[in-house]
Each structure stands twice: as C-alpha cells, then as structure tokens.
Amino acid sequence: MKRTAPFTFIAVLHVMNSLSLFAQTTGTEMKTGGYVQVRYTSDENSIDEFQVRRARLKCSGDLLKNMSFLILFDAVSTPILWKAHIDINYKPWITLRLGQFKTPFSNEYLTSSAKLSMIDRAQVVSNLSTKYDIGLQVSGSFKILSYSLGVFNGSGKNTSDENDWKDVVGMIVAKPFNEAEMGFSHYRGKSGEERQKKNRTGIYMATHLGLLSLGGEYIYAEDGSDQRDGWFVQAAYSCFTDFQGLVRYDTYDPDRDVSDDTSAIIILGLNVFIHNNSKVQINYLLRDDGDHSDALKAQFQTTF
Description:
Layout: H1 5-26, E1 30-43, E2 49-64, E3 67-74, E4 81-91, E5 94-102, H2 107-110, H3 123-128, E6 132-142, E7 145-152, E8 167-177, E9 180-191, E10 196-209, E11 212-223, E12 226-239, E13 243-253, E14 263-274, E15 278-288, E16 294-303
Antiparallel strand pairs: 1-2, 1-16, 2-3, 3-4, 4-5, 5-6, 6-7, 7-8, 8-9, 9-10, 10-11, 11-12, 12-13, 13-14, 14-15, 15-16
C-alpha cells in the first residue's frame, strides 16, 4: 500500500491537471473543493487514538451543454477513487447519471459525511445500506415528489461484477411541506457467483420544527437465508446560532433468528460550528451490546 501511494497521488495530480487544461481550452468552469476530518476516539474496547478519518478532494464542471462531471478522491482510503460520474440533465424531471456513485438507498447514507449531524452514521445504515457502485441511474423531481431508479453491478466501488445479474435499486421521496419529508427505497439484487439473494427495504422520515429537528430510519435486509434489520431515531436542537445538541437511539439486529444479539447505542452529541467552513463534533456513546462499554469521539472538520 505504501509503495503505491506516491504513484497514486501522482496519477491524481495528472487527472486534475488534465481536467484543468480541458476547462481552460473549452472555456468551461471547473470547481474544486473538499474537506478533512481529524478524529480522536477514546473507547473502552480499543486503543485510544487520533485518526485522519477522511481527506477528500472533489472536482466538477460542465463538459457540454446539459452535461456535467464529478470526480471524488479520498487520500486516506485504498483505492482512493470514490466517485466518478457523468450527468446528463435533460429536464428537471429526468437526469441520467453514469459511472460510479452512491446507490439511491438510505437517506442518511446519501447525506455527505461532511454534513452528518452525528460523527458516524447509524449502525443499521453502516451495515445494510448499499453504498457505492458502478452503473446508471435516472432521477428527477415533479412537484412534491422526487425519484431515483438505477441499475448497478452490485459488487461495490472499484470492483468488477461477480455475476451476470444486475441489481436494481429505487427511491421515492415525498415532501408535502418544506418542514417535512418521507422516503421509501428498495434494493433487489444477487451477490457472488452463487447469486445469493441480496434485498433491502428502507423507510425514513424527517421534520424541522423551528430550531428542533426530528428524524428516523428503518432498514430490513435479506442476505441469502439471513434476515437483518435495525432502526434509529434522532433529535437535534440548535441554539445560540453556533451550537447544536443531539440525542440518538440506534439499534441493529444482525440476525433476526438469533436472540440476544441486538446492539443498541444511545448517543449524546454536541456540534460547535466555527465560521462557515469548520465545525467540532463531540459524541458520547452508551452501548448496550453485551459489554456495556462506553466511548467518546471528537472530530474537527474543515471544508475548502
């Protein structure tokens, strides 16, 4: 990994330079940005440590009329390529996306890690959401409804397909009021050469009542003969402009046929916003997973 890192970094710089030259030649505008997250974790079950959790660089721009691109790298992951897609924006109610990107499943997973209210995503989202993949997607919006429907390899990011079956995933969101929305998503696929069942169904709701925000999500999964599910509910209250207090109840059952294996966590959080591009997040985790161990996480994030 260490030997390939310099070459990978050089390749990223080459790609960025080529895109910049293309933008200058065609007169199009290319935007760059990103964010860095530095974290400290004190956990009764592991070694306390500092960590560069994410170091992401994004570039995007217009290729032609109604056609745009986006590329996202993460310098602390291997491989470093996370997103690479082209969007063809035909009408507000139909956009075609091709490449590697997040599958349209789970509202919390579709939320950028830079915009999460808690430091980490909920257990059920981390374990059961379908994450990044390679394929194509059609999406759009009409009045109070928005939709996304995609076909993917089903093997994850930067990975060749494992079988001839293509996985299908869709999501529909209703926003009857500016303060409230609800969504339903479903994933139907097969994993591995054996084509084992890989299905997911999720629902979520979110509302904003002045300074108070409420939300929750439930996901049910079938992997072969195994059934898993979990859910979370969360409340956040903003005060004094730069401060936000949060509480979350988060539960995950990795096998519904096995008793006493459910993991539950209560998380108490505090966000402190520094200017417009930086924030400090503090989460205290009270676990009910058999060990009853606690953990403290603190994270500083800056965007550029």
